[in-house]
Amino acid sequence: MSDYSAQGSITVKRLRSGDTITLSFSQNKIPLYQSVDTDTGSVSPDWSVAANQPTVTPSLTSARGNSVSLVRFTWKWNGTNVEEYPALFSVDSTTGALTITGNLASTENYANDVLTFTCTARCAGVEYTFERAIDVVITKKGASSYEGFVTADYTTISTEHETATATLSLFLGETQLSEYFVKWYKGSIDTPFVPVGSSTQATNTVTSSGGDTRTFGRADVDGTALFIAEFYLSASDTNPVTCAALRIVDASDEYNVVFGIVSGTQVDDSSSVVVQANLVNNRTGNSITSGLSAITWKLEVLRMQDDEWNELRESEYTDTYSPQETITVEDTDYTDSSGNAVTADVEVVATVEFTI
Q: Which H or E run includes 350?
């Protein structure tokens, strides 16, 4: 019996050539995070300094090992082409890698930004379009909140790149902390991540001397896996100060779980979104709709709330190949611990067990 996990917002495209392509981002070890003093305009870290500049590199991977080439692409910052801001961004015309070369935070821009990558790729003689976004977290200097980050050199692994190395960082306002403790979970906050060959939950003890990286291998990833890092100020603390997540895809796994939108495009007061999970054979690109026995699905709905991942509900399905989950405003809207009305994105995680 084999277990598979996938997270709904991943960009996966089914090709007419019978292949499956995954678009993912890798980053250098510098998180997409800046803080700004809204009185003076002082920012930290200073991204005009080369050593502080974060780079995001897109990667397109074929499950069948086919060559995938970028035909054309664009990066947008909050909806505007980055080419209009040559002092802020540098783009590698071959790889599509985006380096932030100037400060995005300012006295007028102290809320989160969005970078969006759109591209046309060619595989097996056919062209396809992909799009994916990534957030830039911006806070005011002096803020008392913690922000945790997990960056990775690869977010898609395969027989060519069999491991992904994640780098941790924790900030309190504009200050990067050098000592903290991290617990790892896989798929949901109720499932501790236990690496292959170990009998205990994976943790990181970060000090000024190191300990801020963790390597994930193909044995840790069942098609697609969501790894959740909970940050603690010390190993003896019982409550995390914040958390972050990292999604890793194994493009060489035979099976993967892919989500699709059945109805709706966004959640608002008058509409909901229905997502559907499908089991896909990566080598053929086809959804599996028959021929399995003892097929059991578990769908979990998660929301980031008060700096913690909270499981809203968990549903189990048997004898179906395409379970569905409906997301409404009751899932996205909540009142935080300070009594403020908050809207948040929701993650849907699917795990399927079956016998062939």
A: strand 346-355
Q: What is the pLDDT of residues 28-60, one digit of tens each?
A: 888 899 988 888 888 888 999 999 999 999 988
The verdict on residue 326 lying in a domain is: yes
Tens of pLDDT, residue by residue over 2-30, are: 443 333 232 233 344 556 677 888 888 88
Provide CB contacts within 8 A for 229, sequence distance 6+. Answer: 148, 150, 166, 168, 182, 183, 184, 185, 204, 243, 244, 245, 246
- Cα–Cα distance measured from residue 333 to residue 331, given in angstroms and rounded to the nearest whole number: 6
- How far out from the chain centre does Cα 124 lie? 28
Query: C-alpha distances in angstroms, 194 versus 236, 251, 255?
Result: 20, 22, 22
Is 232 part of a structural domain of the chain? no
Q: What residue numbers bound the domain in which 292 lies?
A: 255-355
User: Could you read off the pLDDT of 93-130 as tens digits, one per residue?
Assistant: 999 999 999 999 998 888 889 999 999 988 877 788 88
State the CATH number of the domain containing residue 286.
2.60.40
